[in-house]
Inverse folding.
């Protein structure tokens, strides 16, 4: 028969495990990305990253993105910008909003296309030599 | 006996032909009689004497497009030119997919003064959210990047 002290030790170890797992599960970031293409040429792009102020709700969707850490920086924006091609290929699998305006006036045509990754919550885990980025979905 | 065999063969061939062709006679004298061939495609269904292609909701629709993008003139390296042109080409591919799946809004405006056309403008716009589009193939030649993209939708998603 288990004593009261034995139960409390067991509960304490469970709490410690939960704490460790919550610490290891990584930080949560809101990432949004937008780029504009005018007349078939890239006009500008912007990447916005900020830490979440409240915990994200939902569950992870899809496979995560792994980016290598080149130096000891933990600045996520710098890491993503140094591997922007991988990040850009990865976000194609997520929901992207497309808006296009074409205009033909007196034989002159112009086109403006905007592709946007709406602010999305990501869990980011920094390991020894790579970063794991996994998106959330409510 | 010989004639009865020939008659039986004729009757059989007529009945086989009747199974292949569905004929409906018009109600009034003005309407002509219309005959329709039996459905060949398993999705084809005859409803109210009209051949309708009825697709199951789980039927997959694969949409494939080729997006084109050009690298800017002031790039520092061929790699940068390729990356920027590819991004522009993917945006073009997304636009084409959105056009096919969701449709295009078209607005036209003509200004006429003293019976003469002064200005003619056509504006088109597309607005959509796309998920799980795949880049199938990429080619880059003389500053032009072509990206083949495809998206697989179920018929239920497409018809929504």
């Amino acid at each position: 028969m288990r004593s009261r002290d034995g139960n409390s030790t067991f509960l304490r170890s469970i709490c410690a495990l939960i704490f460790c797992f919550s610490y290891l599960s990584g930080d949560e970031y809101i990432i949004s990305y937008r780029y504009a293409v005018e007349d078939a040429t890239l006009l500008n792009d912007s990447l916005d990253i900020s830490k979440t102020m409240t915990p994200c709700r939902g569950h992870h969707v899809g496979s995560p993105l792994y980016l290598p850490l080149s130096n000891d920086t933990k600045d996520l924006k710098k890491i993503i910008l140094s591997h922007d091609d991988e990040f850009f290929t990865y976000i194609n699998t997520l929901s992207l909003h497309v808006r296009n305006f074409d205009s033909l006036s007196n034989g002159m045509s112009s086109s403006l296309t905007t592709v946007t990754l709406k602010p999305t919550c990501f869990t980011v885990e920094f390991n020894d030599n790579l970063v794991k980025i996994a998106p959330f979905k409510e | 006996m010989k004639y009865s065999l020939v008659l039986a063969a004729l009757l059989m061939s007529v009945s086989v032909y009747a199974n292949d062709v569905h004929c409906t006679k018009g109600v009034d004298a003005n309407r002509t009689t219309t005959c329709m061939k039996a459905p060949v495609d398993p999705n084809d269904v005859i409803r109210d004497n009209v051949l309708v292609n009825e697709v199951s909701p789980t039927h997959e629709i694969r949409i494939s497009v080729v997006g084109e993008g050009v690298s800017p003139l002031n790039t520092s390296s061929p790699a940068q030119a390729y990356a920027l042109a590819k991004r522009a080409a993917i945006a073009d591919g997304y636009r084409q997919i959105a056009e096919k799946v969701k449709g295009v809004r078209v607005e036209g405006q003509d200004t006429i003064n003293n019976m003469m056309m002064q200005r003619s403008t056509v504006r088109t716009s597309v607005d959509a959210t796309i998920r799980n589009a795949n880049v199938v193939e990429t080619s880059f030649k003389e500053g032009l990047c072509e990206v083949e993209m495809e998206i697989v939708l179920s018929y239920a998603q497409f018809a929504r």
